[in-house]
Amino acid sequence: MSDPSNPIHPCGACDFYNDSVWQPVASCSVSVLSRGFSRKDLNKGQTLYYQEDENRGVFCLSKGLVALRTYHQNGSSTLLRLAYPGDIIGFRSFLENRPHRTEARALLASRVCTVARRDAQQVVQGNPSILARLASRCISEIDRNHDRIIAAATTSNKQRLIDILLRLMKAHGEQSVECLHMQLPLSRSDLADLIGVQTETVSRLFKRIQADGVFHVSGREIQMLVDPSPRRSGSG
Amino acid sequence: MSDPSNPIHPCGACDFYNDSVWQPVASCSVSVLSRGFSRKDLNKGQTLYYQEDENRGVFCLSKGLVALRTYHQNGSSTLLRLAYPGDIIGFRSFLENRPHRTEARALLASRVCTVARRDAQQVVQGNPSILARLASRCISEIDRNHDRIIAAATTSNKQRLIDILLRLMKAHGEQSVECLHMQLPLSRSDLADLIGVQTETVSRLFKRIQADGVFHVSGREIQMLVDPSPRRSGSG
DNA sequence: CGGCAGTTTGAGGTACGTCAAGAATAGTGG
DNA sequence: CCACTATTCTTGACGTACCTCAAACTGCCG
Question: With a threshold of 0.90, does the pTM exceed it?
Fold first, then answer.
Protein backbone atom coordinates (compact mmCIF):
# COMPACT_ATOMS: atom_id res chain seq x y z
CA MET A 1 0.00 0.00 0.00
CA SER A 2 3.00 2.30 0.19
CA ASP A 3 4.37 3.90 -2.89
CA PRO A 4 7.56 5.49 -1.41
CA SER A 5 7.21 8.54 -3.65
CA ASN A 6 3.74 9.30 -2.28
CA PRO A 7 3.25 7.31 0.89
CA ILE A 8 -0.07 7.11 2.69
CA HIS A 9 -0.37 9.23 5.82
CA PRO A 10 -1.17 7.00 8.81
CA CYS A 11 -3.78 9.50 10.05
CA GLY A 12 -5.32 9.86 6.62
CA ALA A 13 -8.49 7.98 7.46
CA CYS A 14 -8.99 9.59 10.86
CA ASP A 15 -11.93 11.90 11.55
CA PHE A 16 -9.48 14.36 13.03
CA TYR A 17 -6.99 14.30 10.18
CA ASN A 18 -7.59 17.91 9.23
CA ASP A 19 -6.65 19.10 12.73
CA SER A 20 -3.89 16.55 13.27
CA VAL A 21 -0.62 17.85 14.63
CA TRP A 22 1.06 15.44 12.21
CA GLN A 23 -0.45 17.10 9.19
CA PRO A 24 0.91 18.54 6.97
CA VAL A 25 4.39 17.05 6.96
CA ALA A 26 7.00 16.77 4.24
CA SER A 27 6.21 13.68 2.17
CA CYS A 28 9.61 12.27 3.05
CA SER A 29 8.55 12.32 6.72
CA VAL A 30 5.43 10.27 6.16
CA SER A 31 7.32 7.01 6.08
CA VAL A 32 9.02 7.81 9.41
CA LEU A 33 5.63 8.70 10.79
CA SER A 34 4.19 5.42 9.55
CA ARG A 35 7.09 3.50 11.03
CA GLY A 36 6.46 4.98 14.49
CA PHE A 37 2.69 4.80 14.24
CA SER A 38 0.55 2.35 16.16
CA ARG A 39 -3.05 2.04 17.22
CA LYS A 40 -4.12 0.71 20.58
CA ASP A 41 -7.55 -0.13 21.91
CA LEU A 42 -8.05 0.42 25.60
CA ASN A 43 -10.70 -1.30 27.67
CA LYS A 44 -12.71 0.70 30.11
CA GLY A 45 -10.47 1.19 33.15
CA GLN A 46 -7.25 0.34 31.32
CA THR A 47 -4.23 2.57 31.83
CA LEU A 48 -2.28 4.09 28.94
CA TYR A 49 0.58 5.32 31.10
CA TYR A 50 1.28 5.74 34.78
CA GLN A 51 2.55 8.73 36.70
CA GLU A 52 6.38 8.75 36.66
CA ASP A 53 6.50 6.53 33.55
CA GLU A 54 9.03 7.49 30.93
CA ASN A 55 7.48 9.00 27.81
CA ARG A 56 6.94 6.52 24.99
CA GLY A 57 5.66 8.95 22.39
CA VAL A 58 2.87 11.30 21.46
CA PHE A 59 -0.63 9.96 22.00
CA CYS A 60 -3.76 11.01 20.18
CA LEU A 61 -7.19 9.92 21.37
CA SER A 62 -9.36 8.97 18.43
CA LYS A 63 -12.27 7.43 20.34
CA GLY A 64 -13.51 7.21 23.91
CA LEU A 65 -12.71 9.18 27.04
CA VAL A 66 -9.49 9.32 29.03
CA ALA A 67 -8.90 10.77 32.50
CA LEU A 68 -5.59 12.46 33.30
CA ARG A 69 -4.96 12.32 37.02
CA THR A 70 -2.16 13.03 39.45
CA TYR A 71 -1.75 11.27 42.77
CA HIS A 72 -0.52 13.17 45.79
CA GLN A 73 1.74 12.09 48.63
CA ASN A 74 -1.19 11.48 50.96
CA GLY A 75 -2.84 9.08 48.52
CA SER A 76 -5.54 11.42 47.28
CA SER A 77 -5.67 12.44 43.65
CA THR A 78 -6.82 15.24 41.39
CA LEU A 79 -8.42 14.72 38.02
CA LEU A 80 -6.68 17.36 35.94
CA ARG A 81 -8.29 16.77 32.60
CA LEU A 82 -10.79 14.75 30.66
CA ALA A 83 -9.41 14.02 27.19
CA TYR A 84 -11.92 13.76 24.36
CA PRO A 85 -11.45 12.38 20.83
CA GLY A 86 -9.04 14.51 18.82
CA ASP A 87 -7.07 15.51 21.92
CA ILE A 88 -3.32 15.02 22.16
CA ILE A 89 -2.06 13.67 25.48
CA GLY A 90 1.38 13.09 26.91
CA PHE A 91 2.85 16.05 25.05
CA ARG A 92 4.45 17.66 28.07
CA SER A 93 6.64 14.69 28.86
CA PHE A 94 7.38 14.31 25.15
CA LEU A 95 8.45 17.91 24.61
CA GLU A 96 10.34 18.24 27.89
CA ASN A 97 11.74 14.74 27.74
CA ARG A 98 10.70 13.98 31.28
CA PRO A 99 8.52 11.40 33.07
CA HIS A 100 4.75 11.72 32.98
CA ARG A 101 3.28 13.82 35.78
CA THR A 102 -0.17 12.38 35.27
CA GLU A 103 -1.68 8.98 34.84
CA ALA A 104 -3.85 8.38 31.76
CA ARG A 105 -6.71 5.95 32.27
CA ALA A 106 -9.59 5.14 29.93
CA LEU A 107 -13.01 5.86 31.43
CA LEU A 108 -14.67 4.24 28.43
CA ALA A 109 -13.49 1.81 25.79
CA SER A 110 -11.10 4.00 23.82
CA ARG A 111 -8.73 4.03 20.90
CA VAL A 112 -5.36 5.76 21.08
CA CYS A 113 -2.94 6.36 18.23
CA THR A 114 0.71 6.63 19.18
CA VAL A 115 3.73 7.96 17.36
CA ALA A 116 6.73 6.43 19.08
CA ARG A 117 9.06 8.87 20.76
CA ARG A 118 12.13 8.47 18.63
CA ASP A 119 10.24 8.66 15.35
CA ALA A 120 8.12 11.52 16.58
CA GLN A 121 11.26 13.44 17.47
CA GLN A 122 12.69 12.80 14.04
CA VAL A 123 9.55 13.98 12.29
CA VAL A 124 9.35 17.09 14.45
CA GLN A 125 12.98 17.84 13.69
CA GLY A 126 12.28 17.89 9.99
CA ASN A 127 8.96 19.75 10.25
CA PRO A 128 9.03 22.81 12.50
CA SER A 129 5.34 23.42 11.79
CA ILE A 130 4.59 20.41 14.00
CA LEU A 131 6.28 22.23 16.85
CA ALA A 132 4.01 25.20 16.19
CA ARG A 133 0.96 22.93 16.26
CA LEU A 134 2.13 21.26 19.46
CA ALA A 135 2.63 24.71 20.99
CA SER A 136 -0.91 25.48 19.94
CA ARG A 137 -2.12 22.39 21.82
CA CYS A 138 -0.15 23.60 24.85
CA ILE A 139 -1.92 26.92 24.65
CA SER A 140 -5.28 25.18 24.47
CA GLU A 141 -4.35 23.39 27.67
CA ILE A 142 -3.37 26.71 29.28
CA ASP A 143 -6.70 28.18 28.21
CA ARG A 144 -8.56 25.22 29.68
CA ASN A 145 -6.64 25.53 32.93
CA HIS A 146 -7.35 29.24 33.12
CA ASP A 147 -11.03 28.60 32.52
CA ARG A 148 -10.99 26.07 35.31
CA ILE A 149 -9.17 28.38 37.73
CA ILE A 150 -11.64 31.14 36.92
CA ALA A 151 -14.60 28.80 37.29
CA ALA A 152 -13.32 27.60 40.66
CA ALA A 153 -13.17 31.21 41.85
CA THR A 154 -16.42 32.49 40.38
CA THR A 155 -18.82 29.59 39.87
CA SER A 156 -20.60 27.45 42.43
CA ASN A 157 -19.68 23.80 42.70
CA LYS A 158 -23.22 22.91 41.71
CA GLN A 159 -22.94 24.87 38.47
CA ARG A 160 -19.50 23.44 37.73
CA LEU A 161 -20.89 19.93 38.12
CA ILE A 162 -23.74 20.84 35.77
CA ASP A 163 -21.19 22.14 33.26
CA ILE A 164 -19.34 18.82 33.41
CA LEU A 165 -22.59 16.91 32.87
CA LEU A 166 -23.42 19.09 29.87
CA ARG A 167 -20.00 18.51 28.34
CA LEU A 168 -20.25 14.76 28.84
CA MET A 169 -23.81 14.72 27.54
CA LYS A 170 -22.65 16.52 24.42
CA ALA A 171 -19.98 13.87 23.84
CA HIS A 172 -21.76 10.71 24.97
CA GLY A 173 -25.47 11.47 25.36
CA GLU A 174 -28.05 9.54 23.41
CA GLN A 175 -31.26 11.09 22.26
CA SER A 176 -34.53 9.54 23.31
CA VAL A 177 -38.03 10.93 23.55
CA GLU A 178 -37.88 14.43 25.04
CA CYS A 179 -34.55 13.81 26.75
CA LEU A 180 -30.86 13.12 26.37
CA HIS A 181 -29.52 10.34 28.54
CA MET A 182 -26.20 8.69 29.26
CA GLN A 183 -24.41 6.28 31.49
CA LEU A 184 -22.12 8.54 33.53
CA PRO A 185 -18.54 7.40 32.81
CA LEU A 186 -17.20 8.81 36.08
CA SER A 187 -17.70 7.67 39.63
CA ARG A 188 -18.78 10.09 42.34
CA SER A 189 -15.21 9.95 43.55
CA ASP A 190 -13.87 10.88 40.09
CA LEU A 191 -16.26 13.81 39.92
CA ALA A 192 -15.17 14.88 43.39
CA ASP A 193 -11.52 14.82 42.26
CA LEU A 194 -12.54 16.88 39.25
CA ILE A 195 -14.31 19.71 41.04
CA GLY A 196 -12.29 19.56 44.23
CA VAL A 197 -14.82 18.47 46.84
CA GLN A 198 -15.62 15.28 48.77
CA THR A 199 -17.65 12.41 47.34
CA GLU A 200 -20.45 13.04 49.86
CA THR A 201 -20.70 16.57 48.57
CA VAL A 202 -21.07 15.28 45.01
CA SER A 203 -23.99 13.14 46.14
CA ARG A 204 -25.63 16.16 47.73
CA LEU A 205 -24.93 18.34 44.69
CA PHE A 206 -26.68 15.75 42.51
CA LYS A 207 -29.68 15.89 44.78
CA ARG A 208 -29.82 19.69 44.48
CA ILE A 209 -29.31 19.53 40.71
CA GLN A 210 -32.11 17.04 40.36
CA ALA A 211 -34.38 19.22 42.46
CA ASP A 212 -34.02 21.97 39.83
CA GLY A 213 -35.89 19.72 37.41
CA VAL A 214 -33.62 19.62 34.35
CA PHE A 215 -31.68 16.49 35.26
CA HIS A 216 -32.83 13.16 36.57
CA VAL A 217 -30.10 11.21 38.34
CA SER A 218 -30.25 7.57 39.33
CA GLY A 219 -26.84 6.17 40.15
CA ARG A 220 -24.84 6.47 36.95
CA GLU A 221 -27.87 6.93 34.73
CA ILE A 222 -28.40 10.58 33.88
CA GLN A 223 -31.39 11.98 32.01
CA MET A 224 -31.60 15.54 30.86
CA LEU A 225 -34.69 17.33 29.67
CA VAL A 226 -33.86 19.02 26.41
CA ASP A 227 -34.95 22.56 25.84
CA PRO A 228 -38.11 22.72 27.93
CA SER A 229 -38.45 26.47 27.34
CA PRO A 230 -40.20 26.35 23.90
CA ARG A 231 -43.23 24.74 25.56
CA ARG A 232 -45.78 27.06 26.95
CA SER A 233 -44.20 28.60 30.02
CA GLY A 234 -46.01 29.61 33.17
CA SER A 235 -48.55 27.60 35.09
CA GLY A 236 -51.74 28.11 33.15
CA MET B 1 28.65 48.94 18.16
CA SER B 2 27.45 46.47 15.55
CA ASP B 3 29.87 44.61 13.41
CA PRO B 4 27.40 42.95 11.01
CA SER B 5 29.49 39.79 10.87
CA ASN B 6 29.27 39.32 14.63
CA PRO B 7 26.53 41.57 15.93
CA ILE B 8 25.88 42.04 19.62
CA HIS B 9 22.88 40.16 21.03
CA PRO B 10 20.40 42.63 22.56
CA CYS B 11 19.90 40.37 25.59
CA GLY B 12 23.65 39.86 26.01
CA ALA B 13 23.94 41.93 29.16
CA CYS B 14 20.78 40.58 30.80
CA ASP B 15 20.95 38.49 33.95
CA PHE B 16 18.65 35.99 32.26
CA TYR B 17 20.59 35.75 29.00
CA ASN B 18 21.50 32.12 29.54
CA ASP B 19 17.85 31.13 29.82
CA SER B 20 16.57 33.55 27.20
CA VAL B 21 14.18 32.18 24.61
CA TRP B 22 16.09 34.35 22.09
CA GLN B 23 19.32 32.57 22.71
CA PRO B 24 20.94 30.92 20.83
CA VAL B 25 19.93 32.21 17.41
CA ALA B 26 21.71 32.20 14.07
CA SER B 27 24.06 35.17 13.97
CA CYS B 28 22.22 36.47 10.91
CA SER B 29 19.07 36.71 13.07
CA VAL B 30 20.67 38.88 15.72
CA SER B 31 20.31 42.04 13.67
CA VAL B 32 16.59 41.37 13.16
CA LEU B 33 16.29 40.73 16.88
CA SER B 34 18.08 43.99 17.62
CA ARG B 35 15.84 45.87 15.21
CA GLY B 36 12.69 44.66 16.98
CA PHE B 37 14.13 45.01 20.45
CA SER B 38 13.11 47.69 22.92
CA ARG B 39 13.24 48.25 26.64
CA LYS B 40 10.45 49.85 28.61
CA ASP B 41 10.31 50.95 32.21
CA LEU B 42 6.93 50.68 33.87
CA ASN B 43 5.88 52.65 36.91
CA LYS B 44 4.09 50.91 39.72
CA GLY B 45 0.50 50.52 38.57
CA GLN B 46 1.26 51.08 34.90
CA THR B 47 -0.28 48.74 32.35
CA LEU B 48 1.77 46.94 29.70
CA TYR B 49 -1.24 45.73 27.75
CA TYR B 50 -4.96 45.49 28.27
CA GLN B 51 -7.31 42.57 27.87
CA GLU B 52 -8.48 42.38 24.23
CA ASP B 53 -5.46 44.38 23.00
CA GLU B 54 -3.81 43.13 19.85
CA ASN B 55 -0.44 41.50 20.44
CA ARG B 56 2.53 43.81 19.92
CA GLY B 57 5.27 41.28 20.46
CA VAL B 58 6.91 39.00 22.98
CA PHE B 59 7.57 40.55 26.37
CA CYS B 60 10.24 39.53 28.84
CA LEU B 61 10.23 40.86 32.37
CA SER B 62 13.75 41.74 33.45
CA LYS B 63 12.94 43.55 36.71
CA GLY B 64 9.95 44.06 38.99
CA LEU B 65 6.64 42.26 39.33
CA VAL B 66 3.72 42.08 36.90
CA ALA B 67 0.19 40.84 37.53
CA LEU B 68 -1.69 39.05 34.76
CA ARG B 69 -5.43 39.42 35.33
CA THR B 70 -8.63 38.72 33.48
CA TYR B 71 -11.82 40.65 34.03
CA HIS B 72 -15.17 38.89 33.92
CA GLN B 73 -18.51 40.04 32.60
CA ASN B 74 -19.77 40.93 36.06
CA GLY B 75 -16.83 43.27 36.70
CA SER B 76 -14.91 40.99 39.02
CA SER B 77 -11.47 39.73 38.08
CA THR B 78 -9.11 36.85 38.65
CA LEU B 79 -5.38 37.22 39.07
CA LEU B 80 -4.08 34.37 36.95
CA ARG B 81 -0.38 34.83 37.40
CA LEU B 82 2.36 36.85 39.02
CA ALA B 83 5.23 37.28 36.57
CA TYR B 84 8.71 37.48 38.06
CA PRO B 85 11.99 38.59 36.42
CA GLY B 86 13.03 36.22 33.66
CA ASP B 87 9.42 35.33 32.82
CA ILE B 88 8.03 35.65 29.31
CA ILE B 89 4.56 37.14 29.06
CA GLY B 90 2.15 37.66 26.21
CA PHE B 91 3.29 34.51 24.43
CA ARG B 92 -0.16 33.03 23.97
CA SER B 93 -1.45 35.93 21.93
CA PHE B 94 1.86 36.03 20.06
CA LEU B 95 1.86 32.35 19.12
CA GLU B 96 -1.86 32.17 18.38
CA ASN B 97 -2.00 35.56 16.77
CA ARG B 98 -4.99 36.62 18.80
CA PRO B 99 -5.87 39.40 21.25
CA HIS B 100 -4.61 39.25 24.81
CA ARG B 101 -6.90 37.42 27.22
CA THR B 102 -5.28 38.99 30.23
CA GLU B 103 -4.24 42.45 31.29
CA ALA B 104 -0.61 42.93 32.36
CA ARG B 105 -0.07 45.53 35.06
CA ALA B 106 3.09 46.32 36.99
CA LEU B 107 2.72 45.86 40.75
CA LEU B 108 6.17 47.37 41.29
CA ALA B 109 8.42 49.57 39.18
CA SER B 110 9.42 47.12 36.47
CA ARG B 111 11.44 46.79 33.30
CA VAL B 112 10.13 44.91 30.30
CA CYS B 113 12.05 44.01 27.15
CA THR B 114 9.99 43.61 24.00
CA VAL B 115 10.70 42.02 20.66
CA ALA B 116 8.20 43.51 18.25
CA ARG B 117 5.76 41.07 16.75
CA ARG B 118 6.82 41.18 13.12
CA ASP B 119 10.51 40.87 13.91
CA ALA B 120 9.89 38.19 16.50
CA GLN B 121 7.96 36.18 13.94
CA GLN B 122 10.79 36.53 11.46
CA VAL B 123 13.39 35.39 13.97
CA VAL B 124 11.24 32.43 15.05
CA GLN B 125 10.79 31.45 11.41
CA GLY B 126 14.53 31.21 10.93
CA ASN B 127 15.23 29.52 14.27
CA PRO B 128 12.94 26.61 15.13
CA SER B 129 14.74 26.15 18.44
CA ILE B 130 13.03 29.34 19.63
CA LEU B 131 9.70 27.63 19.05
CA ALA B 132 10.89 24.75 21.19
CA ARG B 133 11.89 27.16 23.95
CA LEU B 134 8.57 28.98 23.73
CA ALA B 135 6.80 25.61 23.94
CA SER B 136 8.87 24.95 27.04
CA ARG B 137 7.62 28.20 28.57
CA CYS B 138 4.08 27.12 27.72
CA ILE B 139 4.66 23.87 29.55
CA SER B 140 5.97 25.76 32.58
CA GLU B 141 2.73 27.71 32.56
CA ILE B 142 0.74 24.47 32.36
CA ASP B 143 2.73 23.09 35.28
CA ARG B 144 2.07 26.24 37.32
CA ASN B 145 -1.63 26.04 36.51
CA HIS B 146 -1.77 22.39 37.49
CA ASP B 147 0.00 23.15 40.74
CA ARG B 148 -2.54 25.86 41.41
CA ILE B 149 -5.52 23.63 40.60
CA ILE B 150 -4.11 20.93 42.87
CA ALA B 151 -3.40 23.44 45.63
CA ALA B 152 -6.93 24.80 45.38
CA ALA B 153 -8.28 21.27 45.86
CA THR B 154 -5.93 20.05 48.57
CA THR B 155 -4.52 23.03 50.49
CA SER B 156 -6.28 25.41 52.84
CA ASN B 157 -6.66 29.02 51.81
CA LYS B 158 -4.54 30.01 54.78
CA GLN B 159 -1.65 27.83 53.63
CA ARG B 160 -1.98 29.06 50.06
CA LEU B 161 -1.74 32.64 51.26
CA ILE B 162 1.34 31.73 53.28
CA ASP B 163 2.85 30.15 50.16
CA ILE B 164 2.27 33.37 48.24
CA LEU B 165 3.91 35.39 51.02
CA LEU B 166 6.91 33.09 51.01
CA ARG B 167 7.31 33.39 47.26
CA LEU B 168 7.08 37.17 47.39
CA MET B 169 9.43 37.31 50.34
CA LYS B 170 11.95 35.26 48.41
CA ALA B 171 11.77 37.74 45.53
CA HIS B 172 11.39 41.05 47.37
CA GLY B 173 12.16 40.50 51.03
CA GLU B 174 14.92 42.43 52.76
CA GLN B 175 16.95 40.97 55.56
CA SER B 176 17.04 42.75 58.87
CA VAL B 177 17.86 41.55 62.36
CA GLU B 178 16.27 38.14 62.88
CA CYS B 179 13.63 38.69 60.23
CA LEU B 180 12.84 39.19 56.58
CA HIS B 181 10.48 42.02 55.81
CA MET B 182 8.83 43.54 52.78
CA GLN B 183 6.26 46.00 51.62
CA LEU B 184 3.50 43.79 50.23
CA PRO B 185 3.10 44.71 46.54
CA LEU B 186 -0.49 43.43 46.37
CA SER B 187 -3.64 44.81 47.91
CA ARG B 188 -5.98 42.60 49.93
CA SER B 189 -8.24 42.65 46.94
CA ASP B 190 -5.44 41.45 44.63
CA LEU B 191 -4.65 38.63 47.04
CA ALA B 192 -8.33 37.74 47.17
CA ASP B 193 -8.42 37.55 43.36
CA LEU B 194 -5.33 35.35 43.51
CA ILE B 195 -6.60 32.72 45.95
CA GLY B 196 -10.26 32.99 45.00
CA VAL B 197 -11.87 34.34 48.17
CA GLN B 198 -13.32 37.67 49.33
CA THR B 199 -11.19 40.55 50.62
CA GLU B 200 -12.70 40.23 54.10
CA THR B 201 -11.55 36.64 54.17
CA VAL B 202 -8.02 37.73 53.29
CA SER B 203 -8.06 40.04 56.28
CA ARG B 204 -9.15 37.22 58.52
CA LEU B 205 -6.61 34.83 57.05
CA PHE B 206 -3.88 37.35 57.85
CA LYS B 207 -5.07 37.49 61.43
CA ARG B 208 -4.92 33.72 61.70
CA ILE B 209 -1.51 33.60 60.01
CA GLN B 210 -0.18 36.20 62.41
CA ALA B 211 -1.55 34.26 65.35
CA ASP B 212 0.71 31.34 64.36
CA GLY B 213 3.70 33.51 65.23
CA VAL B 214 5.87 33.32 62.11
CA PHE B 215 4.53 36.41 60.36
CA HIS B 216 3.80 39.86 61.65
CA VAL B 217 1.36 41.78 59.48
CA SER B 218 0.62 45.48 59.68
CA GLY B 219 -1.17 46.79 56.61
CA ARG B 220 1.20 46.18 53.73
CA GLU B 221 4.25 45.73 55.94
CA ILE B 222 5.07 42.06 56.42
CA GLN B 223 7.71 40.70 58.75
CA MET B 224 8.72 37.08 58.82
CA LEU B 225 10.76 35.38 61.51
CA VAL B 226 13.52 33.46 59.80
CA ASP B 227 14.21 29.94 60.87
CA PRO B 228 13.14 30.04 64.50
CA SER B 229 13.65 26.31 64.90
CA PRO B 230 17.45 26.32 65.50
CA ARG B 231 16.81 28.15 68.79
CA ARG B 232 16.15 26.04 71.77
CA SER B 233 12.81 24.42 71.16
CA GLY B 234 10.32 23.47 73.82
CA SER B 235 9.20 25.60 76.73
CA GLY B 236 11.84 25.91 79.44
C1' DC C 1 -26.47 -16.18 49.88
C1' DG C 2 -22.65 -13.16 51.57
C1' DG C 3 -19.11 -9.83 50.53
C1' DC C 4 -17.54 -5.68 48.45
C1' DA C 5 -17.10 -1.27 46.26
C1' DG C 6 -19.79 2.53 45.29
C1' DT C 7 -23.22 5.55 46.89
C1' DT C 8 -26.38 7.87 49.98
C1' DT C 9 -27.89 9.91 54.28
C1' DG C 10 -27.44 12.05 58.85
C1' DA C 11 -25.41 15.00 62.56
C1' DG C 12 -22.37 18.39 63.99
C1' DG C 13 -18.38 21.44 63.28
C1' DT C 14 -15.66 24.85 60.50
C1' DA C 15 -14.71 28.14 57.04
C1' DC C 16 -16.25 31.22 53.92
C1' DG C 17 -19.76 34.64 51.90
C1' DT C 18 -22.55 38.62 52.56
C1' DC C 19 -23.94 42.89 54.32
C1' DA C 20 -22.90 46.66 57.12
C1' DA C 21 -20.25 49.71 59.75
C1' DG C 22 -16.10 51.49 61.45
C1' DA C 23 -10.86 52.30 61.38
C1' DA C 24 -6.64 53.21 59.08
C1' DT C 25 -4.17 55.06 55.23
C1' DA C 26 -3.03 57.84 51.29
C1' DG C 27 -3.79 61.66 48.43
C1' DT C 28 -5.36 66.63 47.76
C1' DG C 29 -5.71 71.38 48.51
C1' DG C 30 -5.59 75.10 51.56
C1' DC D 1 0.84 72.01 59.10
C1' DC D 2 -4.08 70.77 59.06
C1' DA D 3 -8.58 69.48 57.30
C1' DC D 4 -11.11 66.89 53.73
C1' DT D 5 -12.02 63.08 50.84
C1' DA D 6 -11.41 58.64 48.85
C1' DT D 7 -9.64 54.37 49.15
C1' DT D 8 -8.22 50.47 51.49
C1' DC D 9 -8.52 47.61 55.28
C1' DT D 10 -10.66 45.60 59.45
C1' DT D 11 -14.29 43.92 62.40
C1' DG D 12 -18.86 42.07 63.60
C1' DA D 13 -23.13 39.36 62.93
C1' DC D 14 -25.39 35.95 60.60
C1' DG D 15 -26.44 32.58 56.91
C1' DT D 16 -24.77 28.96 53.74
C1' DA D 17 -21.88 25.44 51.89
C1' DC D 18 -18.68 22.22 52.64
C1' DC D 19 -15.96 18.82 55.63
C1' DT D 20 -15.71 14.98 58.76
C1' DC D 21 -17.06 10.88 60.82
C1' DA D 22 -20.32 7.32 60.98
C1' DA D 23 -23.81 4.35 59.42
C1' DA D 24 -26.94 2.51 56.17
C1' DC D 25 -28.11 1.39 51.61
C1' DT D 26 -27.44 -0.24 46.60
C1' DG D 27 -25.96 -3.01 42.90
C1' DC D 28 -22.83 -6.43 41.44
C1' DC D 29 -20.09 -10.58 41.53
C1' DG D 30 -18.64 -14.73 43.22
Answer: yes
Q: Give yes or no for CB of A220 within 7 Å of strand C.
A: yes
CA distance from start to end of chain A: 68
Count Cβ atoms within 10 A of the Cβ of residue A47 and give its class: 0-12 exposed, 13-18 middle, 19 or more buried: middle
Distance of B131 CA from C19 C1′ (whole Å): 51
Please, what are the domains in chain B?
A: 17-151 (2.60.120.10), 156-225 (1.10.10.10)
Q: What is the DSSP string of A90-154?
A: SHHHHHHT---SSEEEESSSEEEEEEEHHHHHHHHHH-HHHHHHHHHHHHHHHHHHHHHHHHHHH
Q: What one-character-per-residue DSSP string does B81-118 give?
A: EEE-TT-EESHHHHHHT---SSEEEESSSEEEEEEEHH
Residue A72's nearest CA partner among B157, B150, B145 is B150
pLDDT at A5: 61
Locate the chain B residue with the closest alpha carbon to A197.
B153
Q: Which of B150, B195, B197, B199 to mutate to test the interface with A (most CBs of A within 10 A)?
A: B150
Nucleotides of C under 7 A from a protein CB: 6-11, 15-20, 24-26
Residue A77 CB in 7 A reach of strand C: no
Residue type, A11: C
User: Would you write out chain B's pLDDT as a tens digit for each of its 236 residues?
Assistant: 445 566 788 998 899 999 999 999 999 999 999 999 999 999 999 999 999 999 999 999 999 999 999 999 888 999 999 999 999 999 999 999 999 999 999 999 999 999 999 999 999 999 999 999 999 999 999 999 999 999 999 999 999 999 999 999 999 999 988 899 999 999 999 999 999 999 999 999 999 999 999 999 999 999 999 865 554 433 32
Cβ within 8 Å, pair A143-B80: no
Which among B76, B142, B152 has the least Cβ separation from residue A142? B142
